[in-house]
Write a structure and sequence with these properties.
Number of strands: 39
Low-confidence stretches: 1-8, 319-332
Distance between the termini: 24 Å
Radius of gyration: 26 Å
Length: 736
Amino acid sequence: MAQDKPAEEAKPQAGQLETVIVTAQRRSENIKDVPMAITTLKGEKLDVLTAGGQDIRFLSGRSPSLNVESDYGRSFPRFYIRGQGNTDFDLNASQPVGLVVDDIVQESPMLKGFPVFDVDQIEVLRGPQGTLFGRNSPAGVIKFDSAKPQIGKTDGYATVGIGNFRSKNFEGAVNLPISDTVAARVSVQSQNRDDRVHNNRPGNGTKDFEGYHDDALRLQVLVKPTSNFSALFNVHARDMDGSATLFRANILKKGSNELVDGFQYGRYDSDAVNEQRLSTEGASMRLRLDLSGVTLHSITGYESADFYSRADVDGGYGAVYAQPMGPSYANQAAFIPFVVETADVLPNHRQFTQEFRAESVNSGPLQWIAGLFYFNEDIQIDSISFDSLAPGNPKNPFFATQYQDTKSWAAFGSLNYTVSDKFKLRAGLRYTNDKKNFSAKRVELTTAGPFGISNESKNVSWDMSGTYALSPDSNLFARVATGYRAPSMQGRLNGLADRPSFAEAEKALSYEAGIKQDLFNRRARLSASVFQYRVKDKQLTAGSGQINMNQLINADRVTGQGVELDFQANLSDALRMTLGGSYNDTEIKDSKLFVQTCGNEPNTKGVNGCTPTGVAGPFAYTQKLNGNPLPRAPKWQGNFTLRYSVPVADGEFFAYTDWAYRSTYNMFLYEAKEYKAKSLVEGGLRMGYKWDNYEVAAFARNITDKVQSVGAIDFDNLTGMVNEPRSFGVQLKATF
């Protein structure tokens, strides 16, 4: 249960912005007093961004320096902050951006995509969070806090929406006061869409694509028998059935990043099965005891996931080395240099976490937090190969199996000291011990392995920061912090001679400074920061080119620097605006590191192979990485929203538009003309009418219907992935 909010959260006067309270430092504080770059999202903004049934990728670009993408679709989102992320598509991939939901870290990629509904607030914490949030957060943390049960209060809401592609969405919540000491809150969401991409080559179990049924539930019970003790129980689950991402062969023009002439979003001809199923379950218990001068917390969490995803990774249909039949994409057989059909399966996953934390509660100048944390995760991953062109498929498929057991514990603490009314200092320290046991084997006509890797890693993370009040409305801040990502292991073995790969721990050191200021009698608010970081032994993922594989590597050093801006204002009684932006300059610094490019072989038919633009490596079809930016890391990002409202009759007419921009980026570690994503602007609009306890609205996402390549598979047939097309619909919301 959250702490009581600080006294400065006074009710705003007419026209003023609300005070934003965050728990980025594990205490409830005014965002202006926290010495780090933070962006929050809540309320109507979330309603707008999720109006069309969007999954968690809607967050991309909605905070400075934040990018979110996926090679799997509605599952396995990959997060990037200040350019740092991980393009690894294996199911045990670690990320440098931590995700924390209701105080429980979500380590597995399969847990990170849990639907966003009935959320009180989202906080994006930029920069290393190694002291209070621990391992695997050297780039930052995204923190979700669900709306909590309230004792003695009955309320709730329900939202129903329909849209194009026969989409049907429902979201609702109800708060139930069971007694004077017990309350419950039930929250549900159901998102559904029919298939919108037609397959002209059905058979062998193939079908149309991109429909889904995605249902989620959260039940919370708050028990507060006395004024100084509370227990919050949380049970949640998700069940999703849909399509994997469509990998579209031959969609990029040779020598450019433009889509080929005749490209049709609604058509994807495939000779293979495409399906995806994900179910997750979890529970947590959060205990709080208030004593004289200290508050004790116990947070226990359990999560599990079951996942199956099968896709036509080679991007279409046709015999190996089929020649194109014409210049039009819509009328040609796909150039398939080799058959790649795979299924990634997570038949066994469980995660257990336990945190004990004590924090001071007094009026003196010194405040402190101390705690212990334990993490245990077991994973089994099966990677299965199919071939729809082979007789008997999928009889006796080849497969690889990986087992990973991770145990980690940490001791941490932080100190806040008020030097004067204007100057405050903070410092934190965390010791982490990680143990990971990994094994992998390959099963074909004979079996290779298992091949094992065991590793123990220890780390000390720390941070120091301070704030200085120029005035009651303006704070300067500065922060230096370190972060740590535990060693990684991968073993999606290919053939009997392959072996697992290993990446050493990466360690980050970051500097940032900025200003947070309320303006014009709190009608506007500005937050601006500059930062610089360096990462030693940066973990990167290199693709194989010829097969659907990953290899882990370490770069000696990666650097990043940039500027971030958040601004919001009530321009008038009728107009509200937000504006955000960031500049990120990243660079890989390792003179000896190189990777394969463009399928790692000459295209024997003389068509479609990509066009590298970087510095050639020591071997044919390789490229040096020294000087390259990080992949999926746009230099420029921006976001803008504008809300207009006016009283009409006994209600209110409103219109809310939102826009996000990002510049180009490299899809892979190497550079190639076809694999440099074009800059992209996407906008949304939601407008409607409110009266009494009701609201009716129309919405549209990607209103310009801009569709382009945003990702790729680096075989030698220019296989790409595109962004979502325009969606639109209507919603009805009732509150009580």
